[in-house]
Amino acid sequence: MNSTLYIVVPCYNEEEVLPETSKRLLAKLTSLMEQGKCSKDSRILFVNDGSRDKTWEIIKQLHESNNLFSGLKLSRNCGHQNALLSGLMTAMPLCDCAISLDADLQDDINAIDEFMDKFHEGYEVVYGVRKERKTDTFFKRTTAVGFYKLMKMLGVDIVYNHADYRLMSKRALEGLSQFKEVNLFLRGIVPLIGYKSTEVYYDRAERFAGESKYPLKKMLSFAFDGITSFSVKPIRLISALGVIIAVLSIAGLLYALISKLCGVAEVGWTAIVASIWLIGGIQLLCIGVIGEYIGKIYSEVKARPHYIVDELLNK
Question: Is the dihedral of CA 147, 152, 158, 159 positive or negative?
């Protein structure tokens, strides 16, 4: 039961929420220690992902005031998934298990108690899953549900209504470290590790301060990255679409020849222009999807590092 826990929190411009977030997480970690669910060597690790505000200054102050707070500063903004990975990889040699969650604490930290119970029962990965989406707008709720269903349809093994709130054992983290792809989508990668896993359900709260770091444009980009990083079905759909258009084109050609031979052909300028625009649009869409995959291959071939650590505060 005397397991070392690291709570990994990626931060980007979170100066408004960090004072309250650190207070709540410290109270939770202290409670877990008192209950004997984690050891006195456990830590809260804040990862500064190239913030432009006073986030890193606040993290340093927290570390100086209490050694239960640790800080990791990246050399630049690397994105949420890379920042999260950097924290998990930093924690891996130091902990028995690590829990990742966002700095806004919309994910209920009281679920951490059950996370630890499941870990001590022998589960290597514990997924935090939202019970429902009442706090979301109709648009966000609808698009989120559509995203998960689409991912399942494309054959991606992903946990429904799970973001990045999860517990991973040291062994699971070592498994994660073997995945070398540059295009990170941890929600899809973690299930591929394959160790014994379970789910813990919780209610998601409203953000108590600051602004969301995932506006619509970023959410759509994240979703598209997830789809193209884990499934080649879009390219197969393009192939199927090409076959269908080819068949329809042959049928149209036969119809035009028969009409010509029967002497009933008429000049159809509108139909010709419409068909050209339709086929042209489909071609451009297909080229765009293929280009996205080629771009990902380009990124993978370069194999640039996910992140570069500038400074680590841990004692």
Answer: positive
- Strands in 309-313's sheet, in edge-to-edge order, are 197-202, 125-130, 162-169, 97-100, 5-11, 43-48, 69-74, 309-313
Helix (H) or strand (E) holding 297: helix 269-302
Report in angstroms the alpha-carbon separations of 201 from 109, 114, 128, 136, 190: 12, 10, 6, 17, 18
The 3 state secondary structure assigned to 85-98 is HHHHHHHHHHCCEE
The DSSP code for 253 is H
What does the pLDDT profile of the chain (315 residues) look like in tens digits? 689 999 999 999 999 999 999 999 999 999 999 999 999 999 999 999 989 999 999 999 999 999 999 999 999 998 888 999 999 999 999 999 999 999 988 888 999 999 999 999 999 999 998 887 666 666 666 766 666 676 677 666 777 778 889 999 999 999 999 988 877 888 888 988 989 999 999 887 765 555 555 555 656 665 666 555 655 566 667 667 666 766 666 666 666 666 666 765 555 655 665 566 667 667 767 777 777 777 777 666 767 788 888 888 887
Which backbone phi and psi does 55 adopt, to 5 degrees? -55, -50
In angstroms, the CA 184 to CA 300 distance is: 11
